[in-house]
Design a protein that fits this description.
This protein is an alpha/beta fold and 325 residues long. Helices cover 36% and strands 21% of the residues. The structure holds nicotinamide-adenine-dinucleotide. Nicotinamide-adenine-dinucleotide binds next to helix 1, helix 8 and helix 11.
Length: 325
Amino acid sequence: MNRLGILIAGLDGAVASTLTSGIALLCRRLAKPTALISEAYVQSHQLAGFNELVIGGWDNRGENLYQAALRNRVLEPERLRPIARELTGIKPWPAGTDKITAFRRQHRLNTVVILNLLPTGENAASKKYARLAAKHGCPFINFTPNDCAESATIPFCGRDGKTGQTWFKSVLAPALRARQLEVTGWYSTNLLGNEDGKIVGDPVKGRQKIRDKSKLLGPMLGYEPYHLVQINYFPPRGDTKESWDYIDIKGFLGQPMQLRISGQYRDSILAAPMCLDLCRFMELAHRRGATGAQTWLSMFFKVPYKNIPHDFFQQEQLLRTYLSP
Ligand SMILES: NC(=O)c1ccc[n+]([C@@H]2O[C@H](COP(=O)([O-])OP(=O)(O)OC[C@H]3O[C@@H](n4cnc5c(N)ncnc54)[C@H](O)[C@@H]3O)[C@@H](O)[C@H]2O)c1
């Protein structure tokens, strides 16, 4: 048995309630484990199975997870109905309270990981949860753009989940570089209508996110093209986000060309399986006695710690190497 506790800061949020609903649906075999990288390693690396996961955490909204999932409107109410009882039974602790020892004991957990899903800009609160993780020897995952005080005594990883547009940027830019096509301009825009969109679409509060999304092109291409990133809060879209990328390139003899890429993503549907992968992989790192920045998990983040390359394929190789027999 490998019983794994997942404590989430921001338990009533869109990503957390989607992750919790997803685990409940997977336990009941009402969904397939699509988009879960870790699933292929459960047997070989003794990762926690769906039935071995216990979710808890903090939120000042105080909603049980059924209420939160209905409010966040990521999954349709009909999809949530069969798991209503499990979700209603999960309630957040008040923000910042320390009940980790009791949680570990009550659920007979081998490991407890802490997953930071606080809103963008909650730097002070994020640091508090990171300190709580260090105090209890829990691996810490920073999926947000927030700054955290990382402790050398526990394994940690972050920063800011690389889920949609930025992920695809880190796939495409290495291919353009490999063909020696010159990128002269890259314009990225996003429409997003959920709570996170309300914050990151704000010109002041969203600065941290824009900074994270803007950093990676120069290091991948070897020069800095004109790069503009915008995020617009657009409530009608809810959790469904739309991204547009216009990429101006020059080819042989300086002839101009253009790529136009439109993504119609679902914010929390992209993020939730990555969060579950990270929880399972961080438990593995902890079991192997690792501490400090887990750079082998950099493919999951926009700004990986320790200046690891942004190139998705190099990052994927780090993961495969760590997991190779
Ligand atoms: N969805 C994605 O694709 C994606 C990608 C990268 C990063 N992220 C990051 O993940 C984080 C979570 O996103 P979300 O869409 O779930 O946001 P959300 O706003 O829906 O959820 C955040 C939750 O945190 C709670 N909260 C606020 N302060 C708190 C505190 N001090 N203690 C406990 N809870 C507190 C809020 O009440 C809310 O329920 C954001 O920082 C976002 O930028 C998301």
